[in-house]
Amino acid sequence: MFDLKGKIQNSIKPTYWSRGFSIYNKWKVLDIITENNNNILSFTTYVEWNYNNEYETYISIDKETKKVKHNCNCPAHWNYYWCKHVSALARKIWSNY
Predict the structure, then answer these.
(1) pLDDT in tens, 61-84
(2) Higher pLDDT, 91 or 11
(3) Contact between 27 and 88 (Cβ < 8 Å)
(4) Which of 1, 29, 43, 86 is 20 to 30 A from 72 via CA?
(5) Is the dihedral of CA 72, 76, 79, 82 positive or negative?
(6) Half-sphere exposure of 77 (CA within 13 A, CB side)
(7) For a pLDDT cut of 70, what percent of the chain falls above it?
(8) In angstroms, rounded to a whole number, what is the distance separating the alpha carbons of residues 41 and 59?
């Protein structure tokens, strides 16, 4: 069986995992669209942020290779290839699935 929670948590640096928790706790992760196509399980949402901004955030997991891909249209993700918005989505996935 595929361990979704374990794969997500193990793929995130501890610093980002804790930053995402604060966003997740404030109910800033909106409804998640889940797709399960062949071997790809994907989750897409918008994460609310300051000044009424929302960042489109995406996580996909290849169930065969176990590879995790993610994206967010915030500036931090472009600079560091990770961000607290992706971590917040991961927290919501981790707690709900």
Answers:
(1) 898 888 889 999 999 888 888 888
(2) 91
(3) no
(4) 1
(5) negative
(6) 16
(7) 94
(8) 8
pLDDT band at 47 (very low <50, low <70, confident <90, very high): very high
- Give the integer Cα–Cα distance in Å for 11 and 87: 10
Type of residue found at 1:
M
Kindly report the three-state secondary structure assignment for every residue of 9-75.
HHCCCHHHHHHHHHHHHCCCECCCEEEEECCEEEEEEEEECHHHCEEEEEEEEECCCCCEEEEECCH
Say how far apart CA 92 and CA 29 lie, in whole Å.
7
Encoded tokens for 21: 């928790």
